[in-house]
Design goal:
12 strands; single chain; Rossmann fold; alpha/beta; disordered C terminus
Length: about 375
């Protein structure tokens, strides 16, 4: 954001298992930051109450005109803190996905939906990172459609934009990927909602059909030990590499022949955008905002939990290097403008400007107090 127009404070909490901090990236950009150690997963009434007190104190000291929140827990507590302020700031929340369906049992899900609906009514603008995300939230009655705005992710895609469509680089040597082997790459958390068991079974099916596939899993999380066991049970442990958390994403993209996402639910998968910018095609489940990134021209979409269809799609790409290059080039053209950082900053600055110019009527002021 333009530092001559905006003074920004980035408030962040504790990391979930398997995650690594990106605070040093923010520091290099000159971000002013505050760390709240009691803000984190899972739900803990004592820690959450302390986090709310700390967030309220930080906000009262900083006196923001706009409070923009992300993620479920942080979004809940920070919006509560913002509602305590006088004068009340404009409140914006971004849904990068949601945990209101498919994550928890019926009782807990009902509680979370109720809380989210209450806070959505008190927020000035709700952002979904994809049309599908907004559609799902409207269907779940979080808020009426006119309360939402779709603002897609924006990323620094320059490291990927001029990459050779043909795979290569040091990671293939590191993993001993043969010239005739096809490297499928997953980048993200290793958690149940990502359904990496489906991807492993798809790789097994594709290799059984004769495709020379290798799989690189980049990231970490609670399910890694179970998935490593599954790869051994399937007899594919020799062609699956769990690389853990890595930051050399351009190197990873350069090595890949294609990207894969097998999730049950997604907002907008960053890895598929970066892979597309590197001119890599994708195979992914048609869930959430994925079809806005992966179209029939830029990859192959399959139904969720269908490892046979996923394996057939991988086999098709593995068999045709010319198809991979052609589809990858289309993917690059599809994402470079839609998901640029410049476009995101312009969209967010425009929204903030609208909110700061809006002068609520007395009746609206009473409803928000």
């Amino acid at each position: 954001m333009d530092p001559d127009r905006y003074e920004t404070l980035l408030v962040h909490g504790a990391l979930a298992p398997g995650e690594e901090s990106l605070a040093d990236f923010a520091e290099r950009e000159g971000a002013r930051m505050r760390y709240v150690p009691t803000l984190g997963q899972p739900i803990n009434p004592l820690a959450d109450a302390q986090a709310l007190r700390t967030l309220t104190a930080i906000a009262r000291d900083f006196r923001p005109q706009v409070v923009h929140t992300h993620a479920a827990k942080a979004g809940f507590l920070a919006r509560l803190a913002a509602l305590r302020l006088r004068p009340r700031p404009a409140i914006v929340h971004t849904y990068h996905g949601h945990v209101l369906e498919g994550y928890f049992g019926p009782a807990k899900t009902a509680v979370y939906r109720t809380l989210e609906r209450v806070l959505a009514r008190r927020s000035d603008c709700l952002i979904g990172v994809s049309h599908a995300t907004v559609d799902e939230l409207v269907r779940l009655r979080v808020a009426p459609r006119d309360r939402f705005r779709v603002i897609p992710l924006g990323l620094d895609l320059d490291p990927f934009a001029n990459m050779d469509p043909r795979p290569g680089g040091p990671l293939r040597d590191e993993l001993n990927v043969a010239e005739d082997e096809v490297l499928v790459t997953y980048v993200g958390r290793i958690v149940p909602i990502k359904r990496l068991d489906v991807l492993l079974r798809a790789v097994h099916a594709s290799r059984t059909a004769g495709a020379p596939l290798r799989l690189a899993v980049v990231g970490d999380g609670e399910q890694r030990p179970a998935l490593e066991r599954l790869s051994r049970e399937l007899g594919i442990e020799g062609c699956v590499d769990f690389l853990g958390y890595r930051r050399d994403l351009a190197t990873i993209a350069a090595a890949a022949d294609c990207y894969a996402v097998s999730s049950d639910n997604e907002g907008t998968p960053v890895s598929l955008i970066e892979g597309a910018a590197a001119a890599r095609p994708a195979v992914a489940t048609a869930v959430g905002g994925v079809p806005e990134v992966v179209t029939p021209e830029t990859g192959i979409l399959v139904g969720r939990r269908d490892h046979d269809a996923f394996g057939t799609a991988l086999t098709r790409l593995a068999a045709d290097p010319h198809l991979r290059v052609k589809v990858g080039e289309r993917a690059r053209q599809h994402v470079l403008h839609r998901y640029s950082a410049t476009r995101l900053v312009t969209d967010i600055a425009g929204l903030y400007g609208e909110l700061l110019e809006r002068k609520p009527l007395p009746s609206e002021e009473r409803r928000s107090s």
